[in-house]
Amino acid sequence: MSNLHNFLVEHAMFPFPQPTEGGPSTGTTDISLFEVPKLDREWKAKYAVRDNMLVQKLCNTLQNILGDTILSADAENQLLSRFSPRIDRILLSTGVLKALGDCLWECDMKLVVKTEQVADRGSSRIDYNLKVDDEDGGLVELPWNGIKLTWTCGQSLVPRMLTKAALYLGLRQMEWLFITCHNYWIVCHLVKNDHHPFLAYSPMISINGSSAPFRALLGAILSVTKKVPVEPTKFDPNMDLDTIDEGEDQGPCSHHHTGQRKAESGLMVTSSSQNSPESSQVWIHLYPFLNNMLALPQCAKSGNRRLWLTHFVGSGSTGNVWQCHFDGSIDFFIAKVVDVLCLADTDKQQRLHDEFNIYLTLESRQPHDCIAPHCYGAFEGNGVAILILDLCDGILNGWGELNDSERLQLYKMVWDLHRIGISHGDLEPRNIARTREHRLCLIDFSESKGSKICSELQTFQKFLWKQQPL
Ligand SMILES: Nc1ncnc2c1ncn2[C@@H]1O[C@H](COP(=O)(O)OP(=O)(O)OP(=O)(O)O)[C@@H](O)[C@H]1O
Can the keyword tRNA-binding be found in this entry's annotation (predicted)? Predict the structure, then answer.
């Protein structure tokens, strides 16, 4: 018979590979500053406080909860098979989950992996979303997720990353977040408090020869599910999260493509509700891309250039797509929004720039509106880049929806595109839209390239006519 807590102190360790083995993560979570207004007051961290003892506090909580829980010889052998020689440390594999599940089992709790969204086109989202059986048999939403934020070893904790972690926690109404980067972990705790909710964060801790990261993780899970509070972090108002992104330092990605600040467009954007008081609305000033020659729609020209993102349409690998309208107008448009919060977002930003260049080419041709929705320009502001387009009625769900004349119309459209020297690069039904004038058009030029060969056209012909002659 041995003691579960002592067992964990001795065995709950991860391997410590060299940076070349696997390398640091460069993924990032998909969190938009536009989501800020959706945060409930108590979940919106306003400050960040470094707590050097945070991990230790979690380990102490775990020790208190486990007390002298005894392991039978069988249970010990079972756990040893999970923990020896080392726990598989990669969150995207199941080693950690199995080890956690076994420990919770010893505490008469069952771990259920609810959803698992693994890396998507180089951008890591939520790795795991877990549930634990609570004592009454109901399911508890487990506020723990391992996520990967862009953070290279040795880099100090940049405020921008903390802002993102705080947003992530607040939007998902979770208290704990474990950020991993190669051999290091950072633990974040959202401390809810009506007067000044804040984010407590640990210094970077190494997994080298230490079982503390795993114990802290289990401590966070058990403290929530068993409702055992962790020793509080002292509030310190020195680092104000709300003002972090203001000022001249616009972060690593800003002006990446332009190298200089552009003239302000007078355009502002928000996802705040129009019913919310002015004081709680979050507005971002927008600056046109340097090569933006396109004019805003007529309804935006009469003075008030405020853009309201009103309805979330969908998201893709480049960014989030919103329905929007200008102040005082009932004409709806589409805004394709890319977060530019950290270096890993530069890839998406580049895709938006490339897509905008395609729209510029199309807009300079007549009749441009046969191929794609009208584009009204591309802009960037604090942490975002945005493309404004005409709103279409919907997208195709499959090629089978097309009648004969639509197939011809579409084929001709792609033919025209290639004549201009552009290949779309992603001709799928989801990228074919129906306009409000009941025509078809192509959307999503984020994979488009200049093209000399027409293999895309040949493949497309096969899609449409299933290899039968025209
Ligand atoms: N002009 C538009 N009108 C209406 N809906 C649109 C428009 N543009 C995009 N959408 C919607 O938003 C979704 C995502 O847009 P889009 O495909 O441009 O984004 P993406 O990030 O480039 O996606 P992908 O991962 O396919 O490359 C589309 O599938 C469509 O439903």
Answer: no
